[in-house]
Design goal:
By secondary structure, the protein is an all-alpha fold. The chain has one domain. About 50% of the residues lie in helices and about 0% in strands. The protein has 4 helices and no strands. Helix 1 packs across helix 2 and helix 1 packs parallel to helix 4. The chain starts with a helix and ends in a 22-residue tail after the last helix.
Length: about 80
């Protein structure tokens, strides 16, 4: 997953304004308490940040594609 795909999904799932606020403000348990924006800047793979954000916000796996059934979202790492 590319960073541009991360932002497109975030905008689709959370809305453009709210996704940016979440990315800046919400500390993610799955990213050592860094925000999504900090995690991406530190080189954490976008796929891992995406799933950490969705986990934190209780977004089920079935809804992580933003309603775009043609969008391939890589599954979380085990």
């Amino acid at each position: 997953m590319r960073i541009s795909e991360f932002w497109a999904l975030a905008d689709s799932v959370f809305g453009e304004s709210y996704s940016r606020t979440l990315a800046r403000e919400l500390a993610l348990d799955g990213c050592r308490s860094m925000t999504a924006a900090e995690s991406l800047a530190q080189g954490v793979p976008a796929r891992d940040v995406w799933h950490a954000l969705c986990d934190q916000m209780s977004i089920p796996l079935s809804e992580r594609d933003g309603g775009e059934r043609t969008t391939m979202v890589p599954p979380p790492r085990q």
